[in-house]
């Protein structure tokens, strides 16, 4: 579970509703036709823009965003260095027994190909193709939320224009003009809330999560290739540590010196 995502999402909407409450009764900000227009039209546009197969994956993407957290990179590096030490000490074939305890299928496939004696260029090509496929899937998920974020405010503006036209069409009662204008503006507010309180932050977070996973799997690829080529475990460690942020790299070096 990614507590940062959950805290950010809940905190954002608490602040939004807190501001609404300060402005008066929440009922003032409720207009059912406007809600239907924003939510309904935004979703139907999504069906118009995106293939059905992609839309079916929207909920799993959201679930993964909220409840999946990438393992620490330094733990992955330690794991790959451990594989390198085992391969150097007992031979690369001995790694097959170590794979039984590994949960990451990407690691298992890479090491298994190395154990099977697959050509290094082919191993790298297969793993990089899988990484590119992963990036494409992430881009699809991100794109769907960007679509919602783009069209929800537009639908809000359409609703506002509809409300303004209806209001200006009947100016016989000046007392109703203010209320009519307020209702007309609600759709713009709803559209902005959907876009900036949900869709666009989700898209940005998916982009961040995708970048994290790309780095994670790139480390795996580099580690597998180093193990396959028989690099010294120390060399493997130094290669993979280049992916760590400077402060984590320094902490890791300090821990080694202390040990």
UniProtKB/TrEMBL annotation:
Transmembrane segments: 7-29, 35-55, 151-171, 177-200
Cited Pfam families: MotA_ExbB
UniProt xrefs under InterPro entries: Flag_MotA_CS, MotA-like, MotA_ExbB_proton_chnl
Superkingdom, natural source: Bacteria
Keyword Transmembrane helix: yes
Membrane topology of this protein: Multi-pass membrane protein
Localization (cell): Cell membrane
UniProt GO BP: bacterial-type flagellum-dependent swarming motility; chemotaxis
Domain MotA/TolQ/ExbB proton channel: 100-214
Single GO cellular component term: plasma membrane
Alphabetic keyword roster: Cell membrane, Flagellar rotation, Membrane, Transmembrane, Transmembrane helix, Transport
Family membership noted in the UniProt record: Belongs to the MotA family.
The name this protein goes by in its record: Chemotaxis protein PomA
